[in-house]
Structures are given as structure tokens and as C-alpha cells.
Amino acid sequence: MADPVRIIHFSDTHITPRQQFIRPNFDAAVNVINSTPHDFSIFAGDLTQDGLIEEFTLADELRRKIDSPKTYWIIGNHDSRSGGFEVWENKIGPREFHEFSDDVLFIGLDSCIPDQDGGRFGREALDYTKKILMKYGDARIKIVGFHHHILPIPKTGRERSNAIDAGDMLSVLLDHNVDAVFTGHKHHPNVYKVEDTIIVSAGSVSSYKTRSGGPRSLNYVEITPEKEVKTKIMETNGTLIRNEVKTITRRFRMVDSAGGKWLRLAQISGTDFGTSFDGHSELFTKGMDLIDSTNPDLILHCGNLTSKGRTSDYELAVENFVNYSDKLVFCPGPNDLKGFGETLSHKHFDTESIFEKNKSCFYILNTSVPETEIGVVGRTVQNRLERYVYHTRQETLDKFHTVVMHHHLIPIPGTRETSALEDAGDVLRLLTNTGVNLVLSGHLGKAFCTRVERTAFVNCNTLASQNTSSFENSFNLIDISADGAIVVSEINVPSGFRRILGIFPGILPDKNKMGSV
Length: 517
Fold this sequence. Notes:
Structural class: alpha/beta
CATH class of the largest domain: Alpha Beta
Radius of gyration: 24 Å
Oligomer: single chain
CATH superfamily of the largest domain: Metallo-dependent phosphatases
Distance between the termini: 38 Å
CATH architecture of the largest domain: 4-Layer Sandwich
Helix content: 10-25%
Number of strands: 24
Number of helices: 10
């Protein structure tokens, strides 16, 4: 049997002769790295503070103090400042590379845009990653490293410096069964399991900037032959902060339907009722006929019911949905809150509520804000949701919990991350920590689903609007079995063709693992 792969993961040293660099923490981290047996180390970017030549000169001197069998050096956005991406290649090494050794594949990528905090992989990097993963598809362990985060990180506020094509990269990683992904950038350590790919983010080793006054840190990661990924998050002096253990199963388990169907949900978005509705009324009618034929228990509208939030828009929407009033649940999108739309949405719909259906709890969250595409949940709503979910989970573990909102939390392939949820990192951590089973969203007009930890995230395309990222309009049909398994299908409106988006076996909540943010 193969030996475990042991990895030191560190990031964001921000080396500079100025005060932003905390030298004692860097020296302490070097001592921990040098005294900890490991197979290789991964540095996830921001070696320097401003990409200046004197910073690279100092960084090159200091990094040579690290005694590691091998270190993979990845460029960060601060290193790309001031033309630093050219200096990096001269002093540190290539910005894009791969290595295959001892049946372990590592791919290092440049996710940076010079002189910008936000990132982008771009078509060339995506194609390069796919090509290498296909070439070494049978590798025992496949690892990818880059600087920018692709999932929202807690305690980091608005998603202003993420990779704008994070969804495309996430799709590549999941499609090619990458085992582990190592990132930096946000100065906060975090570990998520996305389906069967473990995404590990590092804190900062020696920057003056940390989150919530937290300690500077580095990670020790062990990947066992049984595909357990054990992450030890440590302060730079080696003091343990916490352990994270995730298991990669790589087993395709069909849903056991012996217990019967628990609930069927039709998920829609983007009806855009308004002056232009006549142009897509036939699509809407055909879409609703298809939904009728599936006999759903609920129809969940995930935003952009109207085109401009006007009185006439809402009146038209109510008229067209009057026959579905006993099944329709609505949460607003940005279009619905234009003008006086916020007042009108509350007049016609209960846009923030908690209710039960067939032993399933639904939490309707209004994440939209008037006159902006960017969404927000807010601390007050987060606290209320956390208390309610945590309480009901502890008391009644047999209930299935669904959150309905407009804005997506997980990046969506084929779209660009320009209007995400402002507090996405904290909301994502809240939902996964409290064991919510299903999160529905309707942003950006593209169907996509995945599972993070025990929570399935499902985004839908538009039902009738022309504002779609897909070729044609569609809606999602979600079947929930008696044991909590989830089957997600996308149904194309023009053709009626149905395709499976995802199958997620039931995961029973574990009281011992549930906690607050």
C-alpha cells in the first residue's frame, strides 16, 4: 500500500522591508516547516507585498531558509503588481507548470490579473488544466494549486477579489476528479468538501492583515491511501488551531427509492413579467404546462418575477400565477425591487418566511437589494436563520431543510462572478455548519448543482426570460426521496427534453458535527 502524502501548505507572506511584513511570524513558520517531516510544500501566492524588485530580492533570500524536499511556488495578485509577474519568472520560476512524481500529479496555475486584486484563469489556463488532468487521469493523487479562492471564504466580506471565472475552474476540477485544491488570498484558513474534491485555503503566514484579529497560520495536510484528507491548521509557532478531516469516497451511489418520494419541487426563475412579456408569453405557457405535467408539490420561484418591478408588472404576474397560488413560493430578484418594487413585492407575496410542507422546512430569504445586482443576507437574518435551523435540527433530525434565495453561493460554470452575494462567505459557512440539506437560487440564468459538505446547492436557468446564459430556457425538477436523497433534473422548455443535473445520496445530520458559525 502506498504511503500517505504529507504536505505543508502556506501562503501570503507579503514580504517587504516595510512594516506590513511581520518577520517573527515568518521565522517561526520556517522553523515549523523545517522541523515537520513532509513530502513537499505548496506556497499559494503573495510572496511579496507590492511586487517590487527590492521585495523580490529580500523574498528570494528569505525563502531559501526553508528546508523542504520540494516547494511549489505559486504567484499571487500582490506579486503581479508593478510588473512583478516578469520578476517572478526571473527570480522564482514559471507561473504555470505541472509535475508528475511518485504517482502524484501537481498543477500550479497563475490566477492573477496584473495590478488587480481580482483574478481570472482564462481559456488558456482552463484548457491547459484539462489537458494535463486528462493526460494523467490515472494518477493516484491529483492536486491543483492557485492563489485566488473559488468558494466564498468566511469573515472576508463582499466578494470583490475572487476569480471571475471561478465556476469554469470548479467545473474542470469536479469533472476530472481532482482530489485536493490549495489556495490562499483571503488570509483566513478554511476547508470545504465539494462533492469529492477537498478545497483547502490557507491563512497568512506573516502579513499585518488578518481576519477578526485571528492568528497568522499555515496548514499541514496528509492525504492517506484511503483518501482521507487530514488538515491541521496551525499558528506559525506550531500551536494547533483546529483539525479538519474529509473523506474522498469516489463511489457512485444510486438513490434508493424503496422508501418512496418525499417531495417534488419545481424550481423556476426569470419570468420577467412586463411590457415585453408578449414576446415570451408562449415560452411561459409551455413551461408551466410542462411543470403541471410533473405534478410538483411546490413551485419555487427564485427571483426576477417581473422585468422592472412596476405595478403593471406585478399585476400581470399575479394574473398568470393565480391558478398556482396554493403551490407558488416566491423570493425576489434584483428586477423585482426596481422602482417601487420592494413595496409591491411585499404587497403581493410573503417574501421572507419560514413554513413546513410534508415534514420539510423551507426558509425564504430575500437576498436582493433595490437598484443593484449585488445581494446581501445581513447579520440579523443570518443570526435568526442559524438559531431556527440549529434548533429544529436538534429537536427533529428527520426534517429536510431547504433555503430559497435568488443569489448563488457557489460559482456557476459558464458565467462570470460580478454580482455575487455580499456576505457569501459567512452565509455559506452558516448553511453548511447547520446542516441545511438544500439551497436553491436563480441567479445568472444557468442551471448548475453541486454539493458542499452535506448541503446541495442548485441554481436554475430562466423559465421564459431572454436573460439566460444558456442556449434555451429551462426549469429544474427536484425529487427528494424518503431518506433525503436528492435528484436534480433540468427540463428544456422548447423541447421538453430532460437531463439529470445531479444525484446526491441522502446524508443524515450528525448532532455531534453541527455547530454555529
